[in-house]
Design goal:
The chain has nine helices and ten strands. Strands 1, 2, 3, 4, 5, 6, 7, 8, 9 and 10 form a ten-stranded mixed beta sheet that branches. Helices cover 35% and strands 18% of the residues. The chain has one domain: TIM Barrel, CATH 3.20.20.70. By secondary structure, the chain is of the alpha/beta class. Strand 8, helix 8 and strand 9 form a beta-alpha-beta unit. Bound molecules: iron/sulfur cluster. The site of iron/sulfur cluster (SF4) has 9 residues, from loops.
C-alpha cells in the first residue's frame, strides 16, 4: 500500500455519483417499483466507448463512509426498491462488503445485485460469497485484439470467463419470484458491438456450453459511439438490424431461451 491511487483511480473511501430508483434495467431487476441503484465512480476498465466516462474515467462523485453507504442501501429499501443494484462496484469491493454487513444487521432484506464489467478476479469474488445474491456481469469481448484495442486489457475474455464461472458456482441460474422479480442467480449482459458479431457468437457458445443453457442472457442492441468511439474504424457507427438479427439467431441456435432480447429498427 503506497497511499497512491492505482489504475482505476479509486481512493480509500467508496465514491458514489448517485443513488436512486432505476426503471431502465432488465424487467426482473427493475420490476414495477424500480431497482435501488448505487452508481460508483471509477472503473477497472477504460473502454473507448464508455457512456459513463465522466463517472467511470474522471471519477465525478462524492466519497462516502461505509456507514453512509449502508444507510443509502436502507433508504432505497424503504423507498420500495426490489433490490440494491451496485453499479461498477469493483474498485470499492472491500468497503461495499462491509456496508452490506452493516445494512443487513439493520434490516436490509432485499437482494444485492453486483453489476459489473465482468473483469473481476476470482479471489475478490470469493470475498463476496454469501453477500451477493445476483451477479449481473457483462461479457464484452471474446478476442484479445478487442480487449486490447477497446479496453486496454488483452486478457479480458480469459478473466471474464473465469469470473462468470465463479459467479455461477456461487449463485447458480437466475431464479424469479411469482411476480417475475429476480431473487438469486446469474444474469449475463452482452452488448452486441458493430462489426464484431462473431465475438457475440463466441460468447454465447461459451455460456451455452461452459456455464449453462439455463443462463439468463440480456442481449443488448443499444450500442452508440460514445466517448472516443468516433475515432474507431468499426465502433463509430450503430449496430444494424441485420447484425442484431444474426446475434439473436445464434442465441436461438444454442437454445439459450431464458433471457431478454430487444427490437431494433
Ligand atoms: S466497463 Fe463500463 S463503466 Fe467501465 S469503462 Fe467500460 S463501459 Fe465504462
Amino acid at each position: 500500500m503506497t497511499g497512491k491511487a492505482g489504475f482505476c483511480g479509486a481512493g480509500k473511501l467508496p465514491e458514489v455519483s448517485s443513488h436512486t430508483l432505476h426503471f431502465g434495467e432488465e424487467p426482473p431487476i427493475s420490476g414495477t417499483r424500480g431497482s435501488g441503484t448505487i452508481f460508483f465512480t471509477h472503473c477497472t476498465l477504460k473502454c473507448v466507448f464508455c457512456q459513463n466516462y465522466p463517472i467511470s474515467h474522471l471519477g465525478h462523485g462524492t466519497p462516502v463512509s461505509v456507514k453512509k453507504l449502508a444507510a443509502m442501501m436502507l433508504s432505497l429499501q424503504s423507498r420500495g426498491a426490489h433490490n440494491i443494484n451496485l453499479v461498477t462496484p469493483t474498485p470499492h469491493t472491500a468497503q461495499i462488503a462491509h456496508a452490506i454487513v452493516i445494512a443487513r444487521s439493520k434490516g436490509l432484506g432485499i437482494p444485492i445485485v453486483y453489476n459489473t464489467s465482468g473483469y473481476e478476479g476470482v479471489e475478490t469474488l470469493r470475498l463476496l460469497e454469501g453477500l451477493v445474491d445476483i451477479y449481473m456481469p457483462d461479457i464484452k469481448f471474446a478476442s484479445r485484439e478487442s480487449g486490447k484495442t477497446y479496453a486496454h486489457v488483452p486478457d479480458y475474455f480469459e478473466v471474464a470467463t473465469a469470473a462468470v464461472r465463479e459467479m455461477f458456482r456461487q449463485v447458480g441460474p437466475l431464479t424469479l419470484d411469482n411476480q417475475g422479480i429476480a431473487r438469486r442467480g446469474l444474469l449475463v449482459r452482452h452488448l452486441v458491438l458493430p462489426g464484431h458479431v462473431e465475438e457475440t457468437e463466441e460468447i454465447l457458445r461459451f455460456i451455452a456450453r461452459e456455464i449453462s443453457p439455463e443462463t439468463f442472457i440480456s442481449l443488448m442492441s443499444q450500442y452508440f459511439p460514445a466517448y472516443k468511439a468516433a475515432e474507431s474504424d468499426t465502433l463509430s457507427r450503430r449496430l444494424t438490424p441485420e447484425e442484431y438479427q444474426r446475434a439473436k439467431t445464434a442465441l436461438e441456435a444454442l437454445h439459450l431461451d431464458f433471457g431478454w432480447v430487444q427490437e431494433i429498427n
